[in-house]
């Protein structure tokens, strides 16, 4: 039900990394195929979208607490609740802090399921639903009484609240990832990298040497962390982008000037890393810059990487497609209205590009 091998984009396998890498290939060349506002579901004003989910001819728009589901040609089907997860044959949808499973015809598959540690004033950082169990990571903000923040990471059967394993404590998790082989869960607490074995729950903790801040992070296809942050170099604090192994060993780093926070780097195939720094997209491999591409102005940049290392970028209300050599394929100004694009663009398995704003869903071919 929740196999993701053939799912174009599932979401919630990592926080803050939505749509950064997809298994699809871009075939679109900038022609608007269709656009659709959200009035089939509710009247304006519409909320900011977070991500675009794609599987099996269905498109899901996560918008506030809603998941709007469309066909690939823009026909509105139904609404569920968000956060949500697209599996191969089923959708996991969270409502009132409880998890529910549906098939793609909106038939209910399970009763409501408790998510360990997920309650009011808590953020769901990671959710990996399976048919019989859940892996999740949650972060409690402290609530209105400003209690100490705390986190909870667990693996639990869906038919009971007791956990197969549980890791919780005071502090703040900034990032949570599921390893590419799904055998590990990786969280970053402060500057600590904590790796949890998903079978046993055993943990290892490592801290990269000389780092005093990890600002953003993503996990590449080889289970290496790509970080931006600051580190101590002699008597100076410098901003860097770096590749760090899960045991805390720095594999490479290079200085950066003006990274776009809170957007993490994006990773493609062949060890390629893409960051937005100093008003440019920079393509990095093995710690060396291959090329850069200027962005003027820099305004809400969101990057998606296709299976052939093509970049699909939303910036300043403009859709930009760049090949892996750093050459522009096309750009397309989408809107001149008061329209905001907070979700990364998504690539369908037919090569079309889908872009969600706070007003419309666009399809380009």
Explain the layout of strands and helices.
Elements: E1 32-37, E2 49-55, E3 58-63, E4 66-71, E5 76-81, E6 84-86, E7 90-95, E8 98-103, E9 113-114, E10 122-129, E11 133-140, E12 150-157, E13 165-170, E14 173-178, E15 184-189, E16 192-197, E17 203-206, E18 211-219, E19 225-233, E20 236-244, E21 250-255, E22 266-267, E23 272-277, E24 280-285, E25 288-294, E26 302-305, E27 311-315, E28 318-322, E29 328-333, E30 346-347, E31 353-356, E32 360-364
Antiparallel strand pairs: 1-32, 2-3, 3-4, 4-5, 6-7, 7-8, 8-9, 10-11, 11-12, 12-13, 14-15, 15-16, 16-17, 18-19, 19-20, 20-21, 22-23, 23-24, 24-25, 26-27, 27-28, 28-29, 30-31, 31-32
Commentary on this structure:
This protein has strands at residues 32-37, 49-55, 58-63, 66-71, 76-81, 84-86, 90-95, 98-103, 113-114, 122-129, 133-140, 150-157, 165-170, 173-178, 184-189, 192-197, 203-206, 211-219, 225-233, 236-244, 250-255, 266-267, 272-277, 280-285, 288-294, 302-305, 311-315, 318-322, 328-333, 346-347, 353-356, 360-364. It is built from no helices and 32 strands. The strands form 8 sheets. It has a 4-stranded antiparallel sheet with strand order 1-32-31-30, with no helix packed on it. Strands 2-3-4-5 form a 4-stranded antiparallel sheet, with no helix packed on it. The protein is mainly β and 365 residues long. The protein is globular. It has one domain (32-364): Methylamine Dehydrogenase, Chain H, CATH 2.130.10.10.
């Amino acid at each position: 039900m929740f196999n993701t091998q053939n799912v174009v984009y599932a979401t919630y396998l990592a926080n803050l990394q939505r749509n950064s890498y997809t298994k699809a290939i871009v075939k679109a060349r900038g022609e608007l195929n269709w656009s659709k506002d959200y009035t089939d579901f509710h009247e304006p004003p519409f909320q900011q979208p977070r991500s675009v989910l794609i599987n099996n001819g269905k498109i899901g728009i996560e918008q506030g607490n809603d998941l709007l589901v469309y066909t690939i040609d823009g026909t509105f089907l139904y609404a569920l609740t968000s956060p949500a997860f697209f599996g191969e044959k089923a959708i996991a949808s969270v409502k009132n802090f409880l998890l529910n499973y549906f098939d793609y015809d909106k038939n209910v598959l399970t009763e409501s399921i408790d998510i360990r540690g997920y309650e009011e004033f808590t953020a769901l950082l990671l959710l990996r639903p399976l048919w019989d169990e859940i892996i999740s990571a949650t972060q409690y903000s402290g609530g209105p009484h400003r209690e100490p923040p705390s986190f909870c990471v667990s693996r639990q059967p869906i038919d009971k609240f007791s956990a197969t394993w549980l890791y919780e404590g005071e502090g703040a998790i900034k990032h949570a990832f599921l390893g590419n082989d799904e055998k590990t869960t990786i969280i970053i607490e402060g500057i600590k990298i904590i790796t949890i074995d998903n079978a046993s729950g055993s943990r290892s903790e490592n801290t990269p040497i000389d780092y005093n801040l990890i600002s953003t992070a993503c996990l590449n296809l080889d289970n290496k962390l790509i970080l931006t942050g600051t580190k101590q170099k002699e008597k100076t604090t410098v901003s860097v982008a770096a590749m760090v192994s899960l045991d805390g060993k720095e594999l490479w780093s290079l200085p950066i000037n003006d990274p776009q926070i809170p957007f993490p780097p994006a990773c493609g195939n062949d060890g390629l890393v893409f960051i937005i720094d100093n008003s440019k997209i920079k393509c990095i491999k093995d710690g060396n810059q291959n090329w850069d591409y200027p962005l003027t102005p820099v305004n809400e940049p969101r990057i998606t990487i296709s299976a052939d290392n093509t970049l699909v970028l939303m910036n300043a209300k403009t859709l930009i497609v760049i090949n892996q050599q750093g050459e522009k394929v096309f750009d397309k100004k989408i809107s001149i209205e008061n329209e905001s694009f907070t979700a990364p663009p998504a690539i369908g398995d037919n090569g079309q590009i889908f872009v969600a704003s706070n007003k419309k869903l666009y399809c380009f071919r």
